[in-house]
Amino acid sequence: MEKIQIDLGERSLAVHRAGHISGGKPIVLLVHGFPLSAEMWSDVIPALSGDFELLVPDLRGFGANQAEEGPFSMADLAQDLDKLLTAMRINNSIALVGLSMGGYVAFEFQERFRHRLSKLVLCDTRAAVDSAEAAAGRLSVADRVLTIGTKAAVEAMLPRLVWSESTKRYPGLVARIESMMYATHPSTIAHAQRAMAARKSFVESLPSIDIPTQIIVGQHDVISTREEMNSMAEKIPHAKFSMISDCGHMPPMEKPQEFVKELVAFLK
Ligand code: MLT
Fold first, then answer.
1. What is the pLDDT of residues 136-194, one digit of tens each?
2. Could you tell me if 99 and 39 are in contact, meaning their C-beta atoms sit under 8 angstroms apart?
3. CB of 26 shorter than 6 A to ligand 1
């Protein structure tokens, strides 16, 4: 995926731009999950390129960006996206699509930069914070990653990311995800884990989201379950709930065609 580097001042951000650039089509910003990169959207970009202008960044420290040596928060990642739009002189309202950690960033973005949004799509993500046990697990993975490397995060996450059947049905899928994970620097992984452990809850603010919103979830997602995402959809006024069948936590990679169909039906 060819990316351009956009200068945000104190850092630059890699972004892939595709589709109808400056062609007056709706702009869609695709925000990746953890510990992945813009690459996770590569199976859906061709199909979305016909109808939209796509901006697909690597978040701070991930993908083609420099490793992140200092702490950051989910709000910092949202602020980076605002700066990215400013640097790219994008003033039109955009649709923001965030998956999992990208969804945590999307919650922060809609709270701070509501004026920039026309639509919000929350995929396989959570409004609630972690349990004390899950947060402690993240902190321990953060420590282990800094000692033994990215392997610690891959071992903790990979088995839970895709539906077990997808692993069998789509040979190569897990290897692609694994190589994306291994490409992520340990210090970025550690700081992102600490940031997610400290993220704020958006459960109470769901009823005040006033942007047209879609919730997409893989039927067998064990990280952000369909029950939890359905209850999130019920709390957001007029939210559209879409479930992708035979799929785990990664619909854009496990079921790209079905994902595109649901997304386009909402965005158009
Ligand atoms: C992700 O896919 O971004 C992660 O599952 C997020 C998380 O660890 O909560």
1. 999 999 999 999 999 999 999 999 999 999 999 998 999 999 999 999 999 999 999 99
2. no
3. no
Compute the mean pLDDT over every residue in the chain, rounded to the nearest whole number.
96
- Expressed in angstroms and rounded, the spacing between residue 228 Cα and the centre of ligand 1 is 15
Average pLDDT rounded to a whole number, residues 99-126: 98
- The answer to whether the CB of 77 is under 6 A from ligand 1 is no
b/e burial code for range 171-183 (CB count within 10 A of at least 16 → b): eebbeebeebbee
Q: What is the pLDDT of residue 120?
A: 98
Nearest to 217 by CA among 206, 230, 204: 230
Strand blocks (E) in the chain: 4-7, 12-19, 27-31, 53-57, 94-99, 117-123, 213-218, 240-244
Atom of ligand 1 nearest to the CA of 103: 3
* Most ligand 1 atoms within 8 A of CB, residue of 99, 196, 221, 224 to mutate: 196
**Distance between CA atoms of residues 3 and 38, nearest Å:** 10
Q: What is the pLDDT of residues 11-38, one digit of tens each?
A: 999 999 998 877 789 999 999 999 999 9
Strands 27-31 and 53-57: parallel
3-state secondary structure of 90: coil
Helix 186-197 to helix 132-148 angle (10° resolution) is 170
